[in-house]
Structure formats: structure tokens, C-alpha cells
Amino acid sequence: MKVVESKRLQKLGSAIFSEMAGWKAEVRQNGLDIIDLGIGSPDKPPSETVIRALEQAVRIGANYGYPTSEGSLRFRETVSRWYRHRFAVELDPESEVLALMGSQDGLAHLALSITDPGDTALIPDPGYPIYAASLVIAGVSPHPMPLRAKNGFLPRLEDIPADVARKAKFMMLNYPGNPLSAVADRAFFEEAVAFAREYDILIVHDLAYSEMAFDGCRPESILQIEGAKETAVEFHSLSKAFNMAGCRLAFMVGHPEAVRALRTLKSQIDYGVFLAVQEAGIAALEEDMRAPDVETKSKVYERRRDIVIEGLRDYGWDIPKPKATMFIWAPIPSGWTSRQISREILYRTGVVVIPGDAFGTEGEGYVRIALVQDEERLREAVRRIGEFLQS
Ligand SMILES: *Cc1c(COP(=O)(O)O)cnc(C)c1O
Predict the structure, then answer these.
(1) What range(s) does the Aminotransferase class I/classII large domain occupy (predicted)?
(2) Does the residue 163 lie in any domain?
(3) What is the mean pLDDT of the segment spanning 124-142?
(4) Rounded to the nearest whole angstrom, what is the distance from the C-alpha of residue 110 to the centroid of ligand 1?
(5) Residue identifier of the C-alpha nearest atom 4 of ligand 1
């Protein structure tokens, strides 16, 4: 028999990413040294404390039983303490915190637990790919909110037609954002919460990058807004904040009914995160409360950002400096499309950057550069791209 991919699956994923994988393979075969500034995976290990906690926890036999999908109470209590410490937000660990196997797990499944096929959701364009993909999986219609430089990459809520807003079940937001690196101020969060309350929409805020910000910027939680817990949930991840991407640990907090819905769905799908990994997560959050290392961690990316932006400026490519995240969202020189210039940069210099339209049609005119190599490699990448631009 022949197995064909479901129509749903065929609609998933960006053609650009698979096309790029082909380019990369070809370039590698040609023997060019590749500097990969494509995928956004942190290149540093977690702290010694975290590694030691994991080491100890894997020695304990009891940690090898099935965990529960909602996460150990100790992990959820630690999350709740960390949120109070970091954002002054109170969370009930029983009803307002849910452990996740990475936020990808939660972001992929949330729509399935709070929408039905044919519903509508508001998503940013450009946006992190799982936002759109999760709607495909759940049969939900996306209503894209264009994010443009002239609006500080914030959605213009007044542009959302009232009938769409009334229908929409939830709105995805992501500040500091990937791929845009934009940050939102409290005024925008207040506006979003008011809008969500008026139209009865759940706000789903992805806060993966709160601990990766520069020049004194300290990103806020949307749950800091008065009354937000009645209309919002927030995703947070240990992946970027504590260099634990491979450990697969994250959490969703906020609106108890949304927490319960996702928890119910997940109880059918998975049996939770390995308890030893949860212990490592507890150690990371506790260490952060005891001796925050945000400065030094952020400094790594701040220095890398400066190397790339100042370096490319010397070659005549002017890119605004992001205040957060490990990404540079670079407006491309005129005369190119995002895809053409990414392809040329790769074939001519071996440097991988992602064409902006991989994240949505509004991403055309940009490329995303991930700061995931050490300073020396980044300097080398800048030199190669600079010489390419001048040729
Ligand atoms: C990296 C990233 C995440 C984190 O994903 P995990 O599954 O927790 O590793 C979530 N959202 C955005 C925007 C990201 O860039």
C-alpha cells in the first residue's frame, strides 16, 4: 500500500526551510566552510549548578518512574516563586502553572485544547513558525497581524476588524520576539489586555526571551498588567534563559481554565518531563533567584550583537541594534529579495542566514541572523558578508 501525507501535514512547515536545507547540503558538498547563523539554538552549556543537579537526579532510581504530565508540584512551586521574584506576579502552583516538554509542546497543543475546527485566531506576521503550524494542526483559521518597523513591530489592534475580533479565540504575542527581536512596553501590554477583555479573547504571550536583553532593558511579563490573569496565559522556557534547549523543559502560567484545558489534553498525549530534568530546572530557577546571572549571560549576546552590527556597518550595511534576543532582524540592501540574498550569501560565503519571508509574508525585505557562534566566527562571518556586499 501507499501511504500519503495527510492534507494537514502537507500544509505544515515552510517550503523555504526545506529549500534551504538543500542549499546547505550543496554548499557543504562543494567543500565551503559553513558558518551557521540559521537555527536559534544556544551554543553554551547550562551552569555548573544545573549540570550537577541533573547528574545527582539521574542517580536516583525513583526519578525513572512516569512523571505526571502537569509536572511535579515542587517544579510548579518553584516556577511560582520565580515568577513572584522576577515579575512580582502571584501564581497558584496547582491551578495556574503547567510544566511542558519545551514551550514548543505547549504552543503546538494549545489550539487543540481551546479551539474547534473553523475557529479563528490572531497571529503575528512575521512570527515564530509553530504559531501558524499549530492552527493548521487544529483546523483553525489564522488572521495575521502584520508587524511593521514603522509601528515598532507591534500589531495595530485598531486595524483588526471588529467581526474578526469578536470571532477570534486567542491572540498570539511574542515580546521580546523571534524573529523580530522587538520589545513591547507596558503601554502596549495594557492596550492588548483591554482589547482582549473587550472582545473576550485569550492572549497567549510567548516570553521565551525575557532573560536575554541588553543595554539595561528588563522585559516584563504581560501578567504584570492588572487583571491580565483573567485574560492571558504566558509561556516561558528554560531553553534560552538557562541554555537548556536540549533538556526540553518549559511551562505555561496564567488563566486557570486555559491551564486546565491544556493539562487535560496533555494527560492524554504524554506522561510528562523526566523528573531529573525537572530537578535541573528547579536548580536553574533557584540559582537565578539566589545569584542572578542575567548580566553575564546577556553580555555574551550583547557583545556578539555589537560585533555583527558594527562590523556590517563598516561595510555599509546599516542595521538597527536589537534590545533583546539572540537574533538580528536585518533589513536587506535594495535590489534583492530575502530569498535571493540569503541564497547568494550562502553560496558565495558559506554563511547561513534565514530569509525573512520564512516567518511570514511580512518578513520579505529582511533576513534573520542568529548570534549562535563565538566572537571569532562572527567576525569571520561579518568579513565574508562584507566582502560579498562590496563585490
Ligand atoms: C526558542 C523559542 C521557544 C522555546 O522553545 P522550547 O520548545 O521551549 O525550546 C519558544 N518561542 C520562541 C519564539 C522561541 O524562539
Answers:
(1) 33-385
(2) yes
(3) 97
(4) 14
(5) 103
